[in-house]
Structure to design on (304 residues):
C-alpha cells in the first residue's frame, strides 16, 4: 500500500465525495484538514485557551501569545476567536502571512482594518489606525490585531508591533494584539533584544498534543459532528494505533483517519483496514504490504 500520510493527498471529486459521505452516513467530511470552528474539539486545554483569548480581548490586556506545535489547532482556535469578534462587532485584522517587511505589515493591517488613508504611508496608517481605535473605545468596543505564524516575524516587525501596544487610554489598551505561532515564538521572545515586548505579554496560552484518551474523544466528536453520533468505524485498537502514529497531533490524526476511510471506501462493498495498513500510513523507508482485511460490516477492524 502507498504511504498514505506522506504522499500527496488528492481530494475526492464532488460526486465521489458525496458517494463517500453517503456510504458512511456522513453529511460532511469529518476529517477535513481545513480549520473549521464547527469541528472544534473542546478539550480542557482548548477551552482554557479560547477562554483566555476572549478574556484578554474583553479586558483589554494588550498582548496575548498562543503557541503550540504544528497541527495542534492554533489556527482553528483563531477562527473561533474571529467568529466571536464578528458576533460582538469588534473590529479586527488578521495577518496570516508573517513573512513581511515593516512597510508590508502596515499596508496589510491597513487593508484588513479598511483604513481610509494612503496605505503605503506608515504615518498615514498610524494616524488612521489611532482614529479608528479612539472611535471604537468611545463606543465601548475594542479592536484586535491577530498575527498567525508569528514565529516567522522579523525582529524589526516585532518591534513595530510592540510600539503599537503603546496605543492606550486610561481604561486600557486600545489595540489587543494576539501573536500565534510555534514554540520557536516563545524562544524568540526570550531573547534579550525582545525583553521589552516580552514584559508586555499579559496572557500566554499553549496547545499540546492530545493524550490517548483525548484522541479517542477527538475522533468520536468529529464523527458525531459529521452525522455519526455513535461511531462504529474505528475500533479502540485502531484508534490507539492512530494516536501512536500521529503522536497525538490533531492534524495528523485527521490525515490518517481520512486516508483510512478513503481506502476503506475503495474496498466497497465491505471496507476493512488491517494493522499493517495502519502501519503503512506512517512508514516511508520500506515497501509496505497489507494483509487481507478482516471484514466486519462497516467497522474497520484489526485481524488478530
Amino acid at each position: 500500500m502507498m504511504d498514505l500520510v506522506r504522499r500527496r493527498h488528492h481530494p475526492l471529486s464532488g460526486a465521489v465525495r458525496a458517494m463517500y459521505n453517503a456510504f458512511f452516513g456522513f453529511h460532511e467530511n469529518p476529517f477535513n484538514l481545513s480549520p473549521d470552528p464547527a469541528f472544534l474539539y473542546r478539550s480542557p486545554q482548548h477551552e482554557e485557551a479560547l477562554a483566555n483569548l476572549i478574556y484578554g480581548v474583553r479586558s483589554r490586556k494588550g498582548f496575548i501569545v498562543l503557541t503550540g506545535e504544528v497541527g495542534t489547532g492554533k489556527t482553528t482556535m483563531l477562527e473561533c476567536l474571529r467568529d466571536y469578534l464578528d458576533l460582538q462587532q469588534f473590529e479586527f485584522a488578521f495577518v496570516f502571512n508573517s513573512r513581511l517587511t515593516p512597510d508590508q505589515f502596515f499596508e496589510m493591517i491597513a487593508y484588513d482594518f479598511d483604513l481610509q488613508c494612503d496605505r503605503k504611508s506608515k504615518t498615514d496608517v498610524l494616524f488612521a489606525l489611532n482614529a479608528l481605535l479612539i472611535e471604537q473605545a468611545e463606543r465601548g468596543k475594542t479592536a484586535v490585531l491577530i498575527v498567525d505564524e508569528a514565529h516567522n516575524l522579523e525582529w524589526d516587525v516585532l518591534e513595530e508591533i510592540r510600539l503599537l501596544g503603546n496605543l492606550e487610554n486610561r481604561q486600557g489598551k486600545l489595540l489587543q494584539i494576539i501573536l500565534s505561532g510555534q514554540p520557536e515564538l516563545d524562544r524568540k521572545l526570550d531573547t534579550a533584544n525582545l525583553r521589552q515586548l516580552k514584559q508586555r505579554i499579559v496572557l500566554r496560552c499553549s496547545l499540546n498534543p492530545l493524550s490517548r484518551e483525548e484522541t479517542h474523544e477527538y475522533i468520536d466528536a468529529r464523527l458525531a459532528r459529521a452525522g455519526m453520533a455513535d461511531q462504529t468505524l474505528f475500533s479502540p485498537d485502531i484508534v490507539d494505533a492512530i494516536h501512536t502514529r500521529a503522536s497525538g497531533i490533531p492534524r495528523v490524526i485527521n490525515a490518517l483517519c481520512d486516508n483510512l476511510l478513503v481506502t476503506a471506501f475503495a474496498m466497497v462493498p465491505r471496507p476493512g483496514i488491517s494493522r499493517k495498513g495502519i502501519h503503512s500510513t506512517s512508514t516511508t523507508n520500506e515497501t509496505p504490504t497489507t494483509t487481507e482485511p478482516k471484514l466486519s460490516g462497516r467497522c474497520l477492524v484489526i485481524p488478530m
Summary: The radius of gyration is 23 Å. The chain is about 45% helix and 10% strand. The longest strand covers residues 175-181.
